[in-house]
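TICKET: design request
STATUS: open
ATTACHED STRUCTURE:
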């Protein structure tokens, strides 16, 4: 599977306020072939590290 981009937004379920957003973009000229599941974990974890 090739992951070209991923955008994740997390909301608080009780208040509907946005907790954070993060993304990954692999559409440049020099692209890689990362594991999609690992990249998804990195994107989600980056939201909660802030």
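STATUS: resolved
RESOLUTION: sequence designed for all positions
ATTACHED SEQUENCE:
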């Amino acid at each position: 599977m090739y992951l070209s981009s991923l955008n994740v937004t997390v909301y608080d379920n009780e208040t509907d306020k946005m907790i954070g957003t993060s993304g990954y973009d692999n559409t440049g000229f020099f692209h890689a072939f990362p594991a999609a599941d690992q990249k998804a974990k990195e994107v989600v974890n980056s939201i909660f590290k802030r």
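CLOSING REMARK: The chain has one domain: 5-48. The beta strands are 5-11, 18-25.
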